[in-house]
């Protein structure tokens, strides 16, 4: 993908990612977090930083993993983006690993949206072995972007942003991003500072939600947008005129996380309850059992939701 035109408030994270990749002893970078938080944008900006481009000198390969469900299709994708030739009597595995074995210079592979093959039914073991085998080659550095809180396999990932993964934007960066997305369509901007602040707060400074809300300002005033948000909430956070997917709909992105991490039963019930609580559950480990009468222990469900980054 092309670098996003609007990219605000992530300079520190980009620098951290670049520093990690440019150290000889650190080769594995995990960009974790919720859907719509901007993981792919971060990976692209890190990949396009001058020092990273100097180190890998055109040997950067971006793999959109939402297209692949298992190890075999991932290998096919790698062969395609690396422009490798499959000779007669050679398997795809041999072509890929012979190439990595013969490589003398550093190369970088970005596995974007890795939650798809990692969580696909019946494919995890094969994908795990593939990743670990690729990681054994000293010339290979890896970036993985993925919904959730923990990097895949037993590879010693350095997680960008700390234990909980990538955070939302700061209030100032969120406002800058909203104004940049709205562009010239937001007339008399100074008249709507308080409304923009309120909307960014209610969108919880999530980049995808900010971009999708700003599109409405191309047609209606900021005052009308606030009225739409008050009435319709997240149903307005869809990109008009396009088939809904993880990049064009907040609801689709949330549903995708629920599907990928198999959030069902009591876990889904807990998520639904937490969604009604603006401040979450303070000191949840002591007080969560008081929310429900029929069940007192919710530790397993909380762990599943934390792992999916649907809550934090």
Automatic annotation (TrEMBL):
SUPFAM superfamilies: P-loop containing nucleoside triphosphate hydrolases (SSF52540). InterPro entries: NACHT_NTPase, P-loop_NTPase. Residues 28-150 form the NACHT domain. The lineage of its organism: Eukaryota, Fungi, Dikarya, Basidiomycota, Agaricomycotina. This is NACHT domain-containing protein. Gene3D superfamilies: P-loop containing nucleotide triphosphate hydrolases (3.40.50.300). It comes from the Eukaryota.
């Amino acid at each position: 993908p092309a670098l996003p035109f609007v990219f605000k408030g992530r300079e520190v994270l980009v620098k951290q990612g670049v520093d990690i990749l440019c150290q000889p002893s650190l080769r594995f970078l995990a960009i974790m977090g919720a859907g719509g938080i901007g993981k792919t944008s971060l990976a692209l900006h890190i990949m396009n930083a001058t020092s990273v481009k100097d180190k890998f000198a055109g040997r950067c390969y971006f793999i959109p993993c939402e297209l692949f469900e298992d190890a075999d299709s991932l290998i096919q994708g790698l062969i395609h983006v690396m422009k490798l030739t499959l000779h007669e009597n050679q398997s795809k595995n041999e072509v890929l690993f012979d190439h990595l074995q013969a490589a003398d210079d550093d190369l970088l592979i970005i596995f974007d949206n890795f939650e798809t093959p990692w969580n696909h039914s019946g494919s995890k073991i094969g994908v795990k072995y593939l990743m670990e085998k690729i990681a054994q080659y000293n010339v290979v550095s890896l970036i993985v972007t993925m919904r959730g809180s923990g990097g895949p396999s037993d590879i010693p990932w350095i997680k960008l942003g700390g234990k909980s993964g990538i955070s939302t934007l700061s209030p100032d960066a969120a406002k800058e991003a909203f104004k940049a997305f709205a562009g010239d369509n937001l007339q008399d901007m100074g008249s709507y500072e308080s409304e923009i602040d309120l909307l960014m707060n209610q969108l919880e400074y999530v980049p995808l939600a900010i971009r999708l809300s700003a599109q409405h300002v191309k047609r209606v005033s900021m005052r009308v947008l606030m009225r739409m948000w008050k009435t319709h909430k997240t149903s307005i956070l869809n990109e008009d005129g396009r088939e809904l997917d993880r990049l064009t709909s907040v609801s689709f992105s949330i549903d995708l996380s629920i599907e990928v991490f198999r959030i069902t039963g009591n876990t889904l019930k807990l998520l639904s309850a937490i969604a009604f609580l603006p401040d979450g559950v303070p000191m949840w480990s002591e007080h969560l059992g008081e929310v429900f009468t029929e069940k007192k222990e919710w530790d397993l469900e909380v762990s599943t939701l934390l792992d999916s980054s649907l809550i934090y």
